[in-house]
From TrEMBL:
PANTHER family: RIBOSOMAL RNA LARGE SUBUNIT METHYLTRANSFERASE K/L, RIBOSOMAL RNA LARGE SUBUNIT METHYLTRANSFERASE K_L. It comes from the Bacteria. CDD domains: THUMP_AdoMetMT. Keywords: Methyltransferase, RNA-binding, Transferase. The keyword Methyltransferase applies. One of its GO terms (molecular function) is RNA binding. The keyword Amino-acid biosynthesis does not apply. This is 23S rRNA m(2)G2445 methyltransferase. Residues 43-154 form the THUMP domain. It holds the Pfam family RlmL_1st.
Length: 374
């Protein structure tokens, strides 16, 4: 059994831990902005393929004291890099964290790179090349206080990039956050799902991915582990085939997204088409005040503008009041959720939340508000 570390957005550690448990991982331990877990090679591949709320899956290979550039260089050079990196392969180094001496990520990465290629030159008179965009091996170095953890990045890039969303609106949710919000709702795909302020469509698209039991990783063209020595291609192909066979043809209940902006809604349609979800989601150009519930019961989730990024909060009061009016008048019997970073605007909804969950949208502290509509 190998120990792994899944990086996640702040405040979503418990959501990611629950997802890892469902995928069959063991020894699951949530931490800060990440969850450690254990599993075999198949579990590593499976988590990369199926995880909806995780950014990257790291494989720790060394932990050591590193307080200066010189100490970092010595420690990295002591590691035998032959099992991980052939001189014909390319690599890149990502650095997170810092300490008093190692406080510049670019120069820290350069020290690690130098240590690796100097070892290669000494042993083989050849060295690997650096490829920052598409390396065969991507390394992650995390510096915290006087320690450095070196890991292999099995994902090779953030898993929130599903492959369906080059088209984005003004302030889009990351796919991983949208998926986490849907999990936090407790939404059953047998119930309708509506986002009345859908923008470029991330929430309805992630709802459709869940409803159709689609492995999010099927939309990616490559994972980091595919460039590693010992990559098990038959195992990976089997897992992909199993995932493709699990996909449902259509959702059990309607999934809908609407927006008043026709051009933005076209972005959502393009993203859904790119993800193979053209027929799974009903899109509609509609003002919020004209919205009607498509069924007696369901789940509504929205991410209205907060004021910080999309205009002054004072101009958004009427939008939040309209949200409250629509909830009260048109969606009785439903459960509604609103993500907001502005407490004063949230008060304009005019309803008492049944629950308040603290959530980070990037670096922005937000609250996920739940409303039971009777």
């Amino acid at each position: 059994m190998q120990k792994y570390f899944a990086t996640v957005a702040r405040s979503l550690e418990a959501v990611a831990a629950a997802e890892l448990e469902k995928l069959g991982a063991s020894h699951i331990e949530p931490g800060f902005a990440g969850v450690s877990f254990s599993g075999d090679l198949e579990m590593l591949y499976r988590v990369n393929l199926w995880a909806r709320t995780i950014f990257r899956v790291l494989v720790p290979i060394a932990e050591f004291r590193a307080t200066t550039r010189e100490e970092l260089y010595r420690q990295v050079r002591r590691i035998d890099w032959q099992p991980y990196l052939d001189t014909s392969a390319t690599f890149a180094v990502d650095v997170t964290g810092s300490n008093a001496q190692l406080n510049h990520s670019h120069f820290t990465a350069l020290q690690i790179k130098n240590a690796i290629v100097d070892q290669q030159r000494e042993r083989d008179a050849r060295r690997s090349s650096v490829d920052l965009l598409r390396p065969d091996l991507r390394l992650n170095a995390h510096i915290y206080q006087d320690r450095c953890i070196l890991s292999l990045d099995s994902s090779g890039g953030s898993l929130h990039k599903r492959g369906y969303r080059p088209a984005m609106g003004i302030a889009p949710l990351k796919e991983t956050l949208a998926a986490a919000l849907i999990d936090l709702c407790g939404w059953d795909p047998a119930l309708p799902f509506v986002d009345p302020l859908c923008g470029s469509g991330t929430l309805p698209i992630e709802a459709a991915i869940k409803a159709l039991d689609i492995a999010p990783g099927l939309g990616r063209d490559r994972f980091g582990f595919e460039g590693w020595p010992g990559f098990d291609r038959p195992l990976w192909q089997r897992l992909q085939s199993e995932a493709k066979a699990r996909r449902h043809e259509r959702p059990r209940a309607p999934i809908a997204g609407s927006d008043h902006d026709r051009a933005v809604l076209q972005l959502a349609k393009d993203n859904a088409r790119r993800g193979g979800l053209k027929a799974a989601i009903h899109w509609q150009v509609r003002e919020l005040a004209q919205l009607e519930a498509p069924a007696p019961q369901g789940v509504l989730v929205c991410n209205p503008p907060y004021g910080e990024r999309l205009g002054e909060a004072s101009a958004l009061g009427s939008l939040y009041r309209t949200i409250g009016d629509v909830f009260k008048q048109r969606f009785k019997g439903w459960t509604a959720f609103v993500l907001t970073a502005n407490r004063e605007l949230a008060k304009q909804i005019g309803l008492r939340p049944a629950q308040r969950l603290p959530i980070f949208n990037g670096a922005l502290p937000c609250t996920f508000l739940k409303y039971e509509l009777y």
